[in-house]
Amino acid sequence: MKHSIWLTVNGETYEREIDARTLLVHLLREQLGLTGTHVGCVVGECGACSVIVDGALVKSCLMLAVQADGCEVTTIEGLSTPGIPDTPGTLHPIQQAFIDRFALQCGFCTPGFVMAAHALLARHPDPTEEQIRQVLSSNLCMCTGYVQIVEAVKEAAARMRRGQGHRQGHQDELATKHTKDTEGSSTKKHQDQTTLP
Ligand code: FES
Ligand code: FES
Fold it and tell me: Best exposed site among 3, 38, 43, 98 by fewest CB in 10 Å?
């Protein structure tokens, strides 16, 4: 049985007809083309599929797409700002800190860790190491050993508190210039970049 849903993803509104059993992660990747959200275990253990839904960190393999009807979703693609002619793209401070602190190797787990860190720092701009480790404990990395990831989140928090890399205004400007939806049946509306409370 098909269900009609609409949701906002990274500031754009989509409408889709989907099967009731479609997982949110599969909607994002296979129907919206947002493949930055990775699929690892599909049973809620690895965190590779982590996204933000209405301000809450969610493992999108544990959520049916119909449950996201009417929700605002932010994926890893919603954090960075793509470049356009005459305007260079920029990474989110968390993404940049992961690079600078060597917090990734194969990178498979990285989008999930970045989204978990994003959710944490939205609520706790100056988190303790215990808070960082607590949030990141829902994500698995097979490569790095976690130390660099924790250091990257600390570094990102410090940079964000100093205002480095803050470019919401730039994101809003670019959000009016970009559309991603490629399916003819979908509707598209430009909206402000999704932000966490
Ligand atoms: S793919 Fe969702 S938690 Fe592993
Ligand atoms: S960097 Fe390879 S799984 Fe984390």
Answer: 43
